[in-house]
Amino acid sequence: MGVLSTILLLAKNVAIVFLVVLIVNLILPFVSTFLYPPKLGVSVAPISGLKFIKGASCPVPTPKKVTVIEIWATWCGPCVRTIPHLSQIANRFKDSVSFVGITQESLNDEAKIVAFVEKMGDKMDYCVAIDGLGESRVVMKDSAGLGIPHVIVIGADGKMKWAGHPMKAAFVDAVVKAVNEQ
């Protein structure tokens, strides 16, 4: 096989991988919203067993207060890129919203997670917890979360108001609406 044939084969494989990534990241989440919509309006059960590694330990969701839950992981590139955006929103609503980032990584990885959060410093300016027991998977399922990063907005009444990707403009709108309703 010549060099040109090898290059063409490589280009074809790269194009296939690109299309698969495009479908998984752009099209599938869009379609899944229609096939498996979030259960908006349902009460969100408390997530117990969280190990807080940054910020004060608090019940999730926080009773009588708007709560934003972010599901993330240290190994997730898109999660890391959204952290500064989430911090801006958390600071904007710091007096009226309980904001908690929850990673579903193993408690065995606690040292790695703590090091990551410390390295992020003020860029990750909200409470962070590890859900080593996997209890947040229920709210992830109920909110139609198929991937991360994923945020869930819970009203002061304890009911799910919005769920989706944290970079969607509708996320901030949902937080504002939930704050205005409390």
Automatic annotation (TrEMBL):
This is Thioredoxin domain-containing protein. Its main location: other. PANTHER family: CHROMOSOME UNDETERMINED SCAFFOLD_47, WHOLE GENOME SHOTGUN SEQUENCE, THIOL:DISULFIDE INTERCHANGE PROTEIN DSBE. It is found in: Cell envelope. The keyword Transmembrane helix applies. One of its GO terms (biological process) is cytochrome complex assembly. It comes from the Eukaryota. Residues 38-182 form the Thioredoxin domain. One of its GO terms (molecular function) is oxidoreductase activity. The keyword Membrane applies. Pfam families: Redoxin. SUPFAM superfamilies: Thioredoxin-like. Belongs to the peroxiredoxin family. Prx5 subfamily. InterPro entries: Redoxin, Thioredoxin-like_sf, Thioredoxin_CS, Thioredoxin_domain, Thioredoxin_ResA/DsbE_sf. It comes from Physocladia obscura. The chain crosses the membrane at residues 14-36. Keywords: Cytochrome c-type biogenesis, Membrane, Transmembrane, Transmembrane helix.
